[in-house]
Amino acid sequence: MSLRQKLREILPDILPDSPGRAIKGTELIRRVRSILGGNYSDRSYRSQFSLMMLDPESCLARVENGQGYYLRSPNEAGKRCTRSLHDLFDREKGEDEGNSFFRQLLALGARFQGACGKGVFVFPDEEEEAWNHPDLVSVTWPSGYWDSGAYCFLPSEGQEGAPFYRSVCLASIAGFVGAKRALFRALATSLWADEAELMLFGNELLPGDEGELVQLGAMYGVGILLIPLTNKQFDHLPGAGALFRADDEEWREMARNIPCRVLFPPRFRRSRLPVVEGDEIAVVRSWVEGCLARRRVEACELRVSIS
Questions:
Q1: Cα angle, residue 296 at apex, residues 291 and 298 outer, rounded to 5°
Q2: What is the pLDDT of residues 37-63, one digit of tens each?
Q3: CA-to-CA distance for 195 and 25, rounded, in angstroms?
Q4: 148 Ramachandran zone, left/alpha/beta (phi>0; psi -120 to 50)
Q5: Is residue 265 a contact partner of residue 214, using CB atoms and an 8 Å limit?
Q6: Which of 16, 32, 92, 96 could cross-link 21 (Cys pair, CB 3.0–4.6 Å)?
Q7: 37: alpha, beta or left, given left = phi > 0 and alpha = psi -120 to 50?
Q8: Can you state the angle between helices 248-255 and 97-113, rounded to 10 degrees?
């Protein structure tokens, strides 16, 4: 039985029955763990909680514009989430400068990858770079059409109806050695995906270093997108939350002033490598499979971040 199925069984008995008695995520995890044991990480639980709230039939609800989980009432059942999960970008005030800067990179990466209607899954920023998952996953959906803000899939069969996954890592250029390390991280975290890409932010590389980095990208099939923004240009950009939540017209206006250059395009893998996928990648697949099962991607699911 999957973690999602286990949560569906036990949550109705341990959730408070009204928003006024809502409990925070740490308390909910404590209650769940007292029943299921220590086989799952806090990240796994929080990821599942976030995705369950996108399911209109889920028993889990969260206080609007606040913190806390409670049991969804019969009157609320069947109502779909009306907003994306922006928790990751709601924590700008009071955060240290380094984390705030990286969240700004995450928001920029999500908007660049989300162009042309692609779905984007954003992993939370961490104190240290993660080597078991990328920073973003961009999903190319099957053929479809737009209907009232939602993307609906056309009837299809076989491989044409399968989504394509691009694993994306972000890095701020700190010399050639740092850029090369970032490229190998992009490769290591993408073995499960159809494509891999590294988005590099910062000053231009020296011509010789850029050429060597492109050779490495070509050797391993890792795409490289350079966004040469100086520190002064970054200072003039909106915060992470504003970048992430800007509507399409606002984003296009911002993007006009953001230079970017493709050093090497991602190479599509004709067959995925046989690797063991951890909980982090399983959460991405769960999000995508839920959309495929409904044959549509709601407006609030086009760019998803987990709390």
A1: 85
A2: 888 888 778 777 876 776 667 888 888
A3: 34
A4: left
A5: no
A6: 16
A7: left
A8: 110
